[in-house]
Amino acid sequence: MKTRILSVIAILVLTATALEAQVNFGIVAGPNFQNMVGKDADGDKITNGMIIGFHAGVKATIPVATDFYFQTGLLFSQKGSKNNLFLYGKKAASEDYYNNTRISYLELPLHLLYSPELGNGRLLLGFGPYVAYGITGKQTYTYGSREEIKIQFQNEIEMDEYTPGDEVYFRGFDAGADIFAGYEFAFGLYAQLNAQLGLLNIITDITEWDYDPNLKNTGFGVSVGYNF
Fold this sequence. Notes:
Blueprint: H1 2-22, E1 24-39, E2 45-47, E3 51-65, E4 68-84, E5 97-114, E6 117-118, E7 121-143, E8 145-153, E9 156-157, E10 168-170, E11 173-184, E12 189-198, E13 205-206, E14 214-227
Parallel strand pairs: 8-10, 9-13
Antiparallel strand pairs: 1-2, 1-3, 1-14, 3-4, 4-5, 5-7, 6-7, 7-8, 7-11, 11-12, 12-14
């Protein structure tokens, strides 16, 4: 019995060691250029303005076939938009009267990576879904003075719970699709260009309101990272 137990333990240790040897860990960071797009209650296109945020985190790359990898990780990522004061869905036309929406997400990418050798390094081509959840956020209003309202995350609220101008609500959960391309140098440093399209409406549903606007995160970014 002891021999069997020791054999099982040895197999588990060897398996864990092999998996650990195959997984490549790294760090990544860079700027985000984000917007929110969609349609208002009348079905007209929403044209917000872009804001600059950042993303940073860790990632893990697991080989699945020759030159193909599964890549995941955990990122802190800022998203949002800039628009005219109190005219949500209209691109800001003035630097004196506008408000910024900025939401910080914890994001989990689930990517398929194709990475063949190219020169002394490797080409990076990838795509796949992501899921994210908002952990904090605020809207900043600028109209001579400056005011901030903390964003609250709820899927649905009652109409009598909402006070326009005093409260800001968004759905916490977001999901979408990523695509990226870049290059990894032989010593582990890499750079890539990322594009992202949100697929879920992030506007909180206010019951008893006869309107159904739709707003989704979208944007692109530049990532610089290092694989250990």
